Amino acid sequence: MTKFPSSDQDYFSLFKIPNDFEVDLAAVRETYLSFQRAFHPDQFTASSESEQLAALQSSSLLNDAYETISSPIKRAAYLLSLSGVDVEQTSQNDLGMELLVEQMELRELLGALPGGERGLEELEALQVEVEKKVASCQSDFGVAFAKKDLQLSKRLYHKLQFLFKLTAEITEDEDRRLGLG
Amino acid sequence: MALLQIQEPGIKPHHREQKFAVGIDLGTTNSLVAAKVGSVVETLPSKDGDHLLQSIVHYGDGAVTVGREARDFLVEDNKNTIGSVKRLLGKSQAEIRGFGYHLPYELDSQFPDGDPAIVTRHGSVRPTQVSAEILSVLKERAEEFSGQEVDGAVITVPAYFNDAQRQQTKDAAELAGLRVLRLLNEPTAAAVAYGLDAGAEGNVIVFDLGGGTFDVSLLSLRNGVFQVLATGGDTNLGGDDIDRLLMEWIQKRTGFSRDIDEKTLVSLSLLANSIKHRLSLEENAEYAFNNFTGVITRHDLKVLCKIPLKKMVAVCSKVLRDANVKISDVKEVVMVGGSTRMPAVRETVADFFEMPPLVSYDPDKVVAIGAGIQAEVLVGNRTSDEGLLLDVTPLSLGLETMGELVEKIIPRNTTIPVTRAQDFTTYRDGQTALSIHIVQGERELVSDCRSLGRFELRGIPPMVAGLAKVRVSFQVDADGLLSVSAEEVSTGVKAEIAVKPSYGLQASAVEEMLKSSRENAVKDMESRSLNEARVDAERLMEVVDAALLEDPDLIDSRELSVIQSKRELLTELLRVGSSAEIKKVTEDLNLASTNFANRRMDAQISKTLHGESIDSVVSE
Predict the structure, then answer these.
(1) Among B14, B140, B173, B202, which one is least packed by beta carbons within 10 Å?
(2) Residue B274 in domain
(3) Quick check: B480 and B391 in contact, CB under 8 A?
(4) pLDDT at residue B2 greater than cutoff 70
(5) Minimal CA–CA distance to B287: which of B276, B279, B295?
């Protein structure tokens, strides 16, 4: 009888890595794939119904775990929730004036871009700038979390959330300009 | 074409015989069955040596025939000769009427459960039954060929098939007496056949254009892992549609009026189909119709196909974007499906991907062979140290929430199998049941998505609005099929699941959904904002009304008239106002009733302090 991975453990212990923001994505992927090779429903079509059900659940768990760990924003949220921080609740303290102002400025910038070729170039330049901010915010989060400064981490997480939303809006804008969709 | 040397499993118990498993490509135009022959997986021929079985079913005077024999009856017995039935799977009568073209056979009013009914001399038949006839023939073919009974089959479906279409494919298989090992996405099946043969690594695009459906999948092939990164398509786009464009063109050219009898319609479609095929082999094709003869060139056809070709390119773009992969990162483009033989299609693909597509695999057979390879693994004949298939769900899945909005639970291109749960709560005080409406699609409003089913969770203990916690779990299995369950967390009351397939909504085509989702992103946000404003307004009005009923003596006539006038204005705005207007007046009503609310609060507190419980004071 196969021993299936348990849903009692958190995703980090599932992948046998420490609860850090910094992860070796290549290693996590290898672990994920080797687990899927062992526990995917395709491996159990000739087995008992209970094993098939266990396989379905395990494989789903692995997919969720992998998606959470390999996405920086999801990983950040997950780490915070494991530390007892409620990421759904946002208060004024979490956002801070600076962040709110930055959000508004970037949004205005996006909204004010002209149409046509020049607008597209400026859009791409904005995208590069936002990508840099994302990278530095992620790195700041890693540092803050490692120091166990949960309040700062939460604040940086919300900043990251905003930046990811902005990235999505930029991509959509680009799609519209290119007539994709 | 022989593709793969399959290794015999290393250790195998002697007493256990090799099970006989097959792969089946149930296509719109042609169907095939493949199995291991010797040490290689191959498609199996009929007694006449044909590997392809035309997906045409004829309900004759005595017997039911399938394939080439049935095709002969297309013109003379059009009402009883059913082709392209795959187009009808998972669709309602209303959706089929909305196709925009005439079917040569007759659809009666539907069966009680919503299945469309095709009228034949054998009585009314469902699309699943017609499909089962095709599957039966393939099953027989396999059993005659091998002398063994079929233990299980992997059946392929377009990656873009929704839940209803998948379920009906499975139903058809069961009707035909086939045990379904897995529903496998067609592009993934093709990738398996290609990948194992070529031993290739890297990002591969599978471009699958069949008779009735179109899929594009981007897969990453690495170390024997086939992972779908993103998929897109159109379940209403294929060679048949190109035939129809040709038919219209011929009609115009030959001066034929719009009203055309059904037999002539079928003849015309056969002519168009033959022209299309000829133009894949030659630059020009002569044709004769309605006492008119003419010539059509390959270029003419390409121009005629401008819109479908544009659609195909748009889908390719979207798939690359969804996966965040650039054209330069794509290693190979594999062409699958008979319609990819068209030079216009190959040129378009070569232009877009900046490389010649791979056409050396028989586009008609590669899907069945991939399915056959996977069948060997799933039935237990072959250990799968090598192949691991990780597929995705093609469309977002969600629930209807207050205000007819969609809450997405599982976004498209999520790796399956997947389980997600979301907590919902009650809207009104004392609410004891929750209606759960499951939809598939990318839009914000329920009415713009495809309805998959409804069920009710009853027996929620009556509580204050917002207190009950109902956890709804979505599970998509490896076949891409959805199951939903619901549970009220505090009491453990579970869903009374009576899933009613809902075909009532006007379901747009799958690609229409994604396309209009983009176009309508801005409009949708406004709709969502309006609905949210309406919900808040209605809730406030309910609260104010209840308060006025309970404590009429705590309010003076002046306040009352202000509250009433705001309330009237709000009622009017709910009908015709914008979200901004509604929000403003809701806020006004809130302010106007603040003092009244405070007085009520004080009164209740003071009553408590004087020893009376609040429950006895607040009347039901």
Answers:
(1) B14
(2) no
(3) yes
(4) no
(5) B295
The highest-confidence range among B10-14, B60-64, B370-374, B590-594, by mean pLDDT, is B370-374
Cα–Cα dist A159/A157, whole Å? 5
Q: With contact defined as beta carbons under 8 Å apart, do B152 and B378 qualify?
A: yes
User: What are B191-225's pLDDT values in tens digits?
Assistant: 999 988 888 899 999 999 999 999 999 999 988 88
Residues of B in contact with A168 (CB under 8 A): none
Write out pLDDT tens, residues B28-57. Answer: 999 999 999 988 999 999 999 999 999 999
What is the C-alpha to C-alpha distance for residues A113 and A104, in angstroms, rounded to an integer?
A: 15
Note the pLDDT of residue B398: 92
Residue B127 has pLDDT above 90, yes or no: yes
- CA B466 from centroid of its chain's CA atoms: 33
Question: Structural domains in chain A?
Answer: 11-70 (1.10.287.110), 90-178 (1.20.1280.20)
| pLDDT tens per residue, range B523-543 | 555 666 777 788 888 888 888
Q: Active-site residue numbers of B?
A: 25, 86, 186, 208
Collect all residues of chain A within an 8 Å Cβ-Cβ radius of residue B384: 37, 42-43
Same domain? B318 vs B415: no
Backbone angles phi, psi at B23, to 5 degrees: -115, 135
Q: Which pLDDT does position B338 carry in this prediction?
A: 94
> Considering B507, B531, B565, which residue would you say is the last residue of a domain?
B507
B459 with B603, same domain: the answer is no
What is the C-alpha separation between B173 and B177, in angstroms, rounded?
6
Q: How far is A147 from chain B (nearest CA, A)?
A: 32
Secondary structure letter of residue B257 according to DSSP: -
List B225's β-bridge partners, or say none.
Answer: B222, B388
Nearest Cα of chain A lies from the Cα of B378 at a distance, in angstroms, of 6
Record the tokens describing residue B374, joined without a space. Answer: 């996977």
What is this model's ipTM? 0.88
Same domain, B539 and B491: no
Q: Quote the pLDDT of residue B503.
A: 36
With respect to residue B252, please indicate whether it lies within any of the assigned structural domains.
no
Q: Say if B108 falls within a structural domain.
A: yes
Residues B480 and B597 in one domain: no
Chain A residues inside the 8 Å CB shell of B391:
none
With contacts defined as CB-CB under 8 Å, which chain A residues touch B478? 40-42, 56, 59
Classify strands B418-424 and B434-440 as parallel, antiparallel or unpaired: unpaired
pLDDT in tens, B482-506: 888 888 888 777 764 433 344 322 2
Number of domains making up chain B: 3
Give yes or no: residues B79 and B150 share one domain: yes
Q: What is the CATH number of the domain that holds B609?
A: 1.20.1270.10
- B420 and B388 fall within a common domain: no
Lowest mean pLDDT segment, chosen from A83-87, B17-21, B233-237, B249-253: B17-21
In a shared domain, residues B68 and B190? yes
Query: Could you tell me the residue range of the domain that residue B424 belongs to?
Result: 395-507
The predicted-structure confidence for A27-66, as pLDDT tens digits, reads as follows 999 999 999 999 999 988 888 889 999 999 999 999 999 9
Residue B80: is its pLDDT beyond 50?
yes
Which of the 8 DSSP states describes residue B78? G
Q: Does B520 touch chain A (CB under 8 A)?
A: no
How many CA atoms does the CB half-sphere of A100 hold within 13 Å? 8
- Going by C-beta distance under 8 Å and a sequence separation of 6 or more, which residues neighbour residue B73? B58, B60, B80, B81
Q: Does the pLDDT at position A138 exceed 50?
A: yes
Does B378 lie at the interface with A, CB-CB under 8 angstroms?
A: yes
Q: Work out how many CB contacts closer than 8 A connect A with B.
A: 73
Q: Where are the beta strands (DSSP E) in B405-518?
A: 405-410, 414-415, 418-424, 434-440, 450-457, 470-476, 482-488, 493-494, 496-500
Measured between CB atoms, which of A37, A56, A181 is closest to B318?
A181
- Specify whether the CB–CB gap between A32 and A15 falls below 8 A: yes
